[in-house]
Amino acid sequence: MGRFELHDACMAGDVDKVKSILEATPDKVNARGPKNRSPLHCAAKGNSPELASLLISMGADTEARTAYKMTPLHVAAFYGSAAVIRYLLDEVKDLDINALDFGSWTSLHYACNYDRSECAALLIDSGASLTKKSAELQLVALHLAARSGNVATVEKLIKKGCNPSQRNLFYTTPLHLACQNDHLDVVRFLLASGASPDAPDEAGITPAQLTKRDDISRTLEEAVKAAVERRRPPPPPPAA
After folding, report:
1. The pTM is what?
2. Roughly how many angstroms between the first and final C-alpha of the chain, as a whole number?
3. Level-2 CATH architecture, domain 150-232
4. d(Cα 23, Cα 126) in Å, to the nearest integer?
5. Average pLDDT over the chain, rounded to whole?
6. Which of 63, 114, 186, 227 is most deeply packed, by most CB within 10 A?
């Protein structure tokens, strides 16, 4: 048997082979492979809830960590393995939905960053924290969803109470990130949700300075004009 045959079988979704290996060597259920991944990490990557169930029934550690401190739930979110996420959330008691990896990213951070809308929806609906900040840049899930361009996830996060003008370490807002990556639908939704159209970041850069699309520039220009009008003080009452 190859050194990482069990891990390879888990990634491939080969249930029969995994059963055969574990029946012969049950102590391998938490064996570590490349990047310190366990068989359950590999099943999460391969999006096999059947294998996840088998491994957990044989004692797999649901909070095992990779070399980057990722749990199986992190890995499932990273790869868009919605079926495994659903299984873990439904069937694993006391699963740490807000576990942090080496960069203080949660599974929801990964789902939002890599445009895994179904995974993000499952995590949000299961109570994942919307306010956890990454260690390096203090990014919340909304920053990452705006950057990836998934308007459905952005909408869901804001409807759950996220601040559309949330700032990161450098005062960057979700609107800055949506403009920088030319996501018109996200820009429109953020503006409609009350995001400031001209808020500068730490360097004084506004969202309009980051886009390359004329339609986004026009959208922002109109939003800034409307914001200026709203800020204008009302005229004084007529003299008596």
Report:
1. 0.93
2. 96
3. Alpha Horseshoe (1.25)
4. 34
5. 96
6. 186
